[in-house]
Fold these 2 entries.
Entry 1:
Amino acid sequence: MLLLDAFVGFDVSSNRPILHVDLDSFFVGVERILDPRLKGRPVAVGGAPESRGVVSSASYEARACGVRSGMAMAKALRLCPNLIRKPGQREMYARASRAVRRVLDRFSPVVEPLSVDEAWLDLRGTGILFGCAVDTAERIRREVLRSLGLDLTVGVARNRLVSKVASAFAKPKGLFEVYPGREADFLAPLPVRALPGIGPATENRLRKLGLFRLGELAAAEVGLLRKHLGRSGPLLNARALGEDNSSVRGGEEVNIRRSIGHEETFAVDIHDPLLLKAHLRRLLDRASRRLRAEELLAKKVSVKLRWSNFHTVTRDSTLTRHTDNDLELAESAMSSFEKMATDRPMVRLVGIRLSSLIRGFRQDSFFEDGIGRSRRLVSAIDVVRGRHGFDAVKAGEAAWLPIS
Ligand SMILES: [Mg+2]
């Protein structure tokens, strides 16, 4: 009974406790780690007002003067004249997000990221390790704050929908549990916009029907909803009651692409192996950059060569572990190439394909400690290319290639 007791209020067989973890003004949180002087001050991350920038994240001090994400930065600065604007650093946010993900992975094998700062965890079967869902939620909150310095809020419920509404309800630095069977009661007093999937357009249509709160939507005549909202009417009604049977899709269950590849056909056939290697390296850089952008790791690298007579050969090599590191992938590709191109015939096409993909990140710790030099280099290159285009940086042998 010890195991069952651990799931306070949850029937282990049919209801699984689900957590929705949402970092509090995440981009601002990362900016405050990088510059602690921003703590306690109104901060917004987003584009410059003169280039019609928009707020993408606002601190709670800024929200207190009415600043919201999605708002024009010019308006935000009018509402909050002492607002500190930060332009945003995607690479840093992605890195922080990965660090948070590694913490979450310690608490459940089934973690489904929803965005850079939100994820669901299915806690089925973890009770014996971490106690009840609320205890686990509190441990996650403490651990992310302690090890990364970021605040977050957790919603606990028996399905994804209600856990997400619960975390939004409890923000910031909050923890809120909706007991099984009390979903409809919890949702009833909330405005219809609190339900994920109801935007301003649907809100307007519901308003015309006299439906302002989720309790009213839940009690509405399904026929009437169908008449005015079509097929989504009955669905919204069920959701307003807190019904959601979707499951948290973690790890291998998430559909990921099978491979990432690039090919290049030359205007004039090439036989110089150095030049061919340079082209291959360039294709590999593109492919591995996409790999990192999609937060995937590859284990297999294939090199394809098509000779001038259209005869095509492919050679695969399998690495000892999954990686997203350019240098490791390139080493493997180049050794395949060496084995293929001994007789140096004329080549009309080269290609690179990365496969055996899994979702994940290279193990590295947040910010400075322990990050390998090559990983830092690769991240820096991605950042420069993100800002100035792919050809802003070229690796090694590819550096002298003409810009195409
Ligand atoms: Mg958030």
Note: The chain has a mean pLDDT of 84.
Entry 2:
Amino acid sequence: MRSFDTRSHSYLGYVLILQGRVDEVSQDFKVAIGKAAQDKHGFQVGDKVEGMAEPVSDQRLELAEYYKASKLRILDRGSGANQKPPPWTSLTPTLETYRQRGHRRMAARTYEQKCQSCIWGCKMPVEIMIDQWNPSRLKFRFETWCYGPKSCSSYSAGPTRKVPGRHGMTWEEEDWIDEESTSHRELDE
Ligand code: SF4
């Protein structure tokens, strides 16, 4: 969530990016799952899975097309972690670990082309409150972020993010904010 120069995060769970079939129709699609489901199954890149899910009710608030997954089952394990990252494809860390690591903005094109299979890549729905005195004035968009090592050769920041506010004002999120939120990590951490 953003409100001009302030932001907050809710770490709700994970998103599985899948190639497969929905109601026997072949397609690429995404399914949001909760922390408990990931803890239980330990989904990892390359796994073959099946399950039930519902279409999301508001596509502005979800990256995935489906959520409320149930009856999840792993049919076949993938080949395991990539031995020569990037991208990093080992088991995902806990949500607390992501929050503790902090993130840097990442160019949307870099995310689409190089980072969708990386455990450190993230595309998140963002709700922007344009006017704090009129909380019903909202905008929605998606932003891409990297929680990975600052030395990653695939990383590209892209343009700074601009946040709209009252009376046509705009706030720019400058580089120092990313530097500060990841300053506790070494380059390869
Ligand atoms: S830029 Fe970030 S998300 Fe992309 S491969 Fe590197 S660590 Fe992973």
Note: The pocket of iron/sulfur cluster is lined by residues 86-88, 114-115, 118, 120-121, 146, 148-149, 152, 154-155 (CB under 6 Å).
